[in-house]
Structure formats: C-alpha cells, structure tokens
Amino acid sequence: xxxxxxxxxxxxxxxxxxxxxxxxxxxxxxxxxxxxxxxxxxxxxxxxxxxxxxxxxxxxxxxxxxxxxxxxxxxxxxxxxxxxxxxxxxxxxxxxxxxxxxxxxxxxxxxxxxxxxxxxxxxxxxxxxxxxxxxxxxxxxxxxxxxxxxxxxxxxxxxxxxxxxxxxxxxxxxxxxxxxxxxxxxxxxxxxxxxxxxxxxxxxxxxxxxxxxxxxxxxxxxxxx
Length: 225
Ligand SMILES: *Cc1c(COP(=O)(O)O)cnc(C)c1O
Known about the structure:
The chain has helices at 3-13, 29-37, 48-57, 75-78, 91-103, 127-134, 137-140, 160-181, 199-204, 214-217, and strands at 19-23, 42-45, 63-66, 84-88, 108-114, 145-152, 190-192, 209-212. The chain is an alpha/beta fold. It has an eight-stranded parallel β-sheet with strand order 7-6-5-4-3-2-1-8.
C-alpha cells in the first residue's frame, strides 16, 4: 500500500472533530512529501535534531508538532517554528518554552502530558502536580505559552478494557482542568491520544488529535523509536 492510500483511508475514517497528526519520525523527506502531496499538513516528530533537518527542507505551510520527550536545553532550536508541543511534563520545561516564546515574539501552544499508563517508563504529570503548578503566580505570569489541552499514552497492551480506562481517565483530567482552570481559555480544547494500535479506542474516549505513524508510513526500522 502507498503512503497516500494509507493516509486517505485513515483520514476518511476519522470523525470531523478529530485531527490527524502524521507521525513521520525516522522517515525520509520523500515520504513526508508524498503525504504532503496527498493533502496532509500536520506532521509529528519526536526528535529535535530531525525537526531541525526536516523543517527547512519541506514546504512552509506544514504544521510541525513535537510529540516526543523534550529537554529544556533543546527548546530554543524549535521555538521559532513549532506549532504544538505535545509532551510537556515539567514546570521547568513550561518556563523554558515561555522564555523561548518571548525571544521569538510568539505564543507557543503546548499540551500537558499526563501519566495514564501502567508502565513506569512513560513520562507525564499526575493531576495533583499540575494543579499545584496552575495555582502558582509563576505560572500565571507565563504569557508566551498557551495551554491547549492534554496528551497521554496508554499502556502497550492487548487488553482493550485497560486502554479504554486509561483514555477515559485522560478525558476526565481534561474535563476537570477545563472546568476548574481553563473555562475562559478557548485554546484549551485538545486531547491528544491514540496511535496506530489504539486510535479507534482513543476516539471513542474523547480524542481530538490522533498521532499515527506506522499505519501511514509503514513500520519503522529501529525498535527504540
Ligand atoms: C511514535 C509515536 C507515535 C506513533 O506511533 P505509531 O504506533 O507508529 O502510530 C505516537 N505518539 C508518540 C508520542 C510517538 O512517539
């Protein structure tokens, strides 16, 4: 199957409320161009170095999403152009993104990542940690970031009941934060959940942004991506 066919099959299956982030990590420019030609404009990458190479080589109307774990010292490299940073998991990182937003005279959209899986290896806040941060004056002074919602990764398991439970938990966190902290903040509307193996479950449980890689571009070559 070609990239364009895969892409259109998935796109046509999504409800209109759900946006597709085509996860192009490890894939060459030619593959991204093929998806672009087929109409895709939103791409997700998980490495700053790859974004630095791919961004200048591809059309300027692509929206680049950083979906991986981001180190504070690398924010400066993507701050001028990144459209959305999905995996924000510390106050330190929020402050650094704000600082780089200010330097670049822009407001950078971010999602707060929550730890919903059973595996310890996955990153993310707990709800309590985030509420502590949101209450601080330090946070309220961050004018160069816009919190646009939440992101989470479910456990890597065949147990669909478990996966459903975790996505549902993310939706509940979103609702609670929306009601208690972001009621008048129109940007706070995204739930980034679901990948190739579980996006259908995610969509049934509130997802507005699905991050799909291998079902579009084929399997990746190395196991650590
Ligand atoms: C790689 C990756 C994806 C896409 O995974 P697939 O299983 O290939 O669809 C989604 N989200 C994150 C955070 C990733 O790192």
